[in-house]
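Appendix B, example 12.
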Amino acid sequence: MHAVGDVRAYPVCVSTAAPVIPSDLPGADLVRAGLEDLRAGNLSGPALLLLGARERLRQSGIELPEAPIDDPERALYLLLEDGDLSGAHARYNALRQRLVSFCTTFEQLARRRDS
């Protein structure tokens, strides 16, 4: 595993059988960007955001690799903090809220589909 803040590229396998992510879901752009970056082995902000919520996303049917760093949420915060200490907390919380909105909506759609 890499240390927190070490956001170099790494080999990864993201499930090719991932569910279709409707573009009209809140935060779908972040999820798609994160999945694309993970497939490319890039630990970008969106990729770190997804890795921080790996278990919840997995329960929703979106498979992600094991986090190649110890604490992806902290790594995301450090990435956001780079260059702008004062706005990092607000940006981190905004990204997390967008992901929570996505997860909640995606889970609701899955429950409707399964019932």
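Residues 28-114 form one domain. The chain has one domain: 28-114.
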